[in-house]
Structures are given as structure tokens and as C-alpha cells.
Specification:
Length: 291
């Protein structure tokens, strides 16, 4: 191979061809990790560790400071067990209600046109922006003993459910809404041209595409509900064995200088949330394998 001219005289010199030797058969090619990628990955892991992983790990460790026997005793005391049962049961009911009504609201916002649609779409995000203690105060004023509507749900389990519905409203709506927007309407038109009824089109074409988003929003609503404190502490009245939720019980344990017991109840809520999210992930993987 001839290289460039030397000294402008027209002479050329031979330059050896620098080509990499061919890879050996069966040799694995190592993935290249660039400096920017490694830096970004390290920063993300460090941030998640400081903000999420390390604090959660410390809560779990703190819950076992006095042994597993005390851990079990702390979570099975009558008031703690009643609070956990109420919280998990009410959160499950609220998540199912959100599954249906949240999907319906998302459908109306995407497929229907009506006056004030932009205002309704903005109000959906209000529970995200409003402090939860303010939400509890609003609900107490509207559905409390002096309700202008004549409906008194204060200091009852129905009031607890109402507060949880308020704070978890956006989750299913905001996860289903983008899927509906991106859904290809040509498939629906093709099904209609083949004689499918609107119900058959929804069940066979639309619903299968919405199910992953619906389940994701439901799981997020459930995990959000089991940790709710601000909106429930006022309207529930914090009545042990009746309306006291787990988050309020944890606060009471801390006020009573029982940090280990509070950590034990917190660990139970953490495990329940992780199980719900893992179950959702497995269900989505199973659905994707089945197409």
C-alpha cells in the first residue's frame, strides 16, 4: 500500500496496513463502557442508595433491634393489627375502584368532547399538587359534621376510603390516558367493518392494550394508599380499632417513644408494597410472553 508523497518530490514510501487481527472463533466481545455512561450509572446508583435504599434498609434493621420476637409482638398488638388490617383492606378496595372509574375517566378525557374538558383534565392532577393535610381539611369541611351537602362521613371508615380515593385518583387516569391517545384507531375501524359490535371491539382490541397500564396504575394507587397519612388523620378521627390507619398508628408509636415498634409496622407496609409491585411485574411479564 502506498502512502503520501514525501517532500513534494513525488517519492512515495510504503506504509504498513494497520488492521486489527480478526477475532477468534467463539471469542466473546466485551461490551464497551464509556466514561460518561459509567459516570451516569454511578451517580444514579449513589443517588438511589442515599435517598431510597439506605434509609429503607435502616428502617428494616431498626425493626429487629430487639429481636424477631419483639418484631412479631409489635405488629400483632390489637391496635397495630387493626390499623394494618384496615389500611390494607381499604387500600385494596380503593385500588379496585380506581381501576374501573380511573379507566372510565381516562376514556372520557381522550375519546369525548365536552365543555370544560381542559379544566377537568387539570383538576385530575390536583391531588398531586395539594398537600395531603390540606386535602384532609377540605374533605372534613365538605363531608364533616357541618357538611353543606348534608353528608357526614367524618370519623368513619367511609371517610377513610374517601380520603384514599382522593389522593389516589390520578394514578390510573394518568397511566391509561397516554395509552388511549397512542392507540391505533385503524384496528377499531377494521373490526367495525368486519361486523364487530362496539362491545366486541372494546373487549378484543382496546382492553388488551389497556390492561398493562390499568394494572400499573392500580398497583401504584394501592401502594400510595397504604402509606397515606395527611388526608386521613383529620377525617378519620384517629380512633383506635375503628378508623386508625397504619401511618397514623406509626406516628402514635413514635410519639410514645416506641421507635422499634414503629419501624416494625413500617417494615410490614414496605413488604406489602414490594409484594404488590413484584406481583404486577410478574403479571406483566406473563402477559407479554402470551402476546
Amino acid at each position: 500500500m502506498y502512502g503520501p508523497e514525501v517532500g513534494g518530490i513525488g517519492m512515495t514510501v510504503d506504509t504498513p496496513s494497520r488492521t486489527a487481527p480478526p477475532p477468534r472463533a467463539g471469542a466473546r466481545r466485551r461490551p464497551r463502557v464509556f466514561g460518561g455512561t459509567a459516570l451516569g450509572l454511578g451517580s444514579a446508583v449513589l443517588y438511589l442508595s442515599l435517598i431510597v435504599l439506605i434509609p429503607l434498609a435502616l428502617v428494616v434493621v431498626r425493626s429487629t433491634d430487639e429481636g424477631l420476637g419483639y418484631f412479631w409482638k409489635a405488629v400483632t398488638t390489637p391496635d397495630a393489627w387493626a390499623a394494618l388490617t384496615l389500611t390494607i383492606g381499604a387500600s385494596a378496595v380503593v385500588a379496585l375502584v380506581n381501576l374501573v372509574l380511573g379507566t372510565l375517566i381516562a376514556w372520557v378525557l381522550v375519546r369525548d368532547r365536552f365543555p370544560g374538558k381542559a379544566i377537568v383534565d387539570t383538576l385530575i392532577d390536583l391531588p398531586f399538587a395539594l398537600p395531603t393535610i390540606v386535602a384532609g381539611l377540605v374533605l372534613l369541611a365538605l363531608y364533616g359534621p357541618e357538611s353543606p351537602l348534608g353528608v357526614n362521613l367524618a370519623y368513619s371508615r367511609a371517610g377513610v376510603g374517601l380520603a384514599l380515593l382522593f389522593v389516589t385518583l390520578p394514578f390510573v387516569v394518568r397511566t391509561v390516558q397516554p395509552v388511549l391517545i397512542e392507540l391505533d384507531k385503524d384496528m377499531e375501524q377494521a373490526a367495525a367493518s368486519l361486523g364487530a359490535s362496539p362491545f366486541q371491539t372494546f373487549r378484543r382490541i382496546i382492553l388488551p392494550n389497556l390492561v398493562p397500564a390499568m394494572l400499573s396504575g392500580t398497583a401504584l394507587a394501592f401502594t400510595r394508599a397504604i402509606s397515606e397519612f395527611g388526608s386521613t388523620v383529620l377525617i378519620s378521627g384517629n380512633l383506635p380499632f375503628r378508623t386508625q390507619v397504619a401511618a397514623v398508628n406509626i406516628f402514635s408509636q413514635i410519639e410514645g417513644d416506641n421507635t422499634t415498634g414503629a419501624a416494625a409496622i413500617s417494615t410490614v407496609l414496605l413488604v406489602v408494597a414490594l409484594v404488590a409491585l413484584l406481583a404486577l411485574d410478574l403479571l406483566q411479564r406473563w402477559g407479554s410472553r402470551r402476546g
